[in-house]
Amino acid sequence: MKHFRFCSSDNDLQHCSFVTEESPKRIKFAVVRDPIDRFLSGYADKCYPKRLPLPPERCFGCEQNLSCFVETLLSNLRNITRDPNATKYMETSHFAPQTWSCNFKEHLHDYIIIKYESGQQGIRNIAFQFDDIFRLAGVPNYHRSEILKEMLSEFCYVRHVFYCFHQFHFIFRKVTRLQLEKLSTQHLAQI
């Protein structure tokens, strides 16, 4: 089993089988997102932050050049697949496939999968899915209702919409989804 871990191992169990053996009632869930949306959101957050200029090393030093960023990211991801001890950068850790952290290949059936959705109805769907998980985990009703109320609040939705708008408005002027899909299709087979 290849196991990629990007954080220190101070608070990490090394593999899912051990967690299952030690905690048979543990509820495991993962929030998954459309890979293109996940990439754009991460790229906007890391490479187009509210405060400019970026530190020179941020975004692999590509200075908001998407082609440079994607090429460097793919090179780093390839290096990690060949050598798990290869240097790992914050950006590489952030953009690596989610399956690398969860070992979905062997343990997907152990997880409750929540699909990330945007928009008011998407936030509502996610909030109720989280509430179901909290109920299964035995979280008291008063905590669950407070969390659900906060997740469904107008403030939460407005904050989410504003955050998304801020992130994407620079990028969508430069990149269309179609261009990004073409770029990712060309390179994903190489990883």
Automatic annotation (TrEMBL):
GO molecular function: chondroitin 4-sulfotransferase activity
Domain of life (superkingdom): Eukaryota
A GO-annotated cellular component: membrane
GO biological process, one term: chondroitin sulfate proteoglycan biosynthetic process
Pfam assignment, any one: Sulfotransfer_2
Protein name as annotated: Sulfotransferase domain-containing protein
Organism: Strongylus vulgaris
Lineage: Eukaryota, Metazoa, Ecdysozoa, Nematoda, Chromadorea
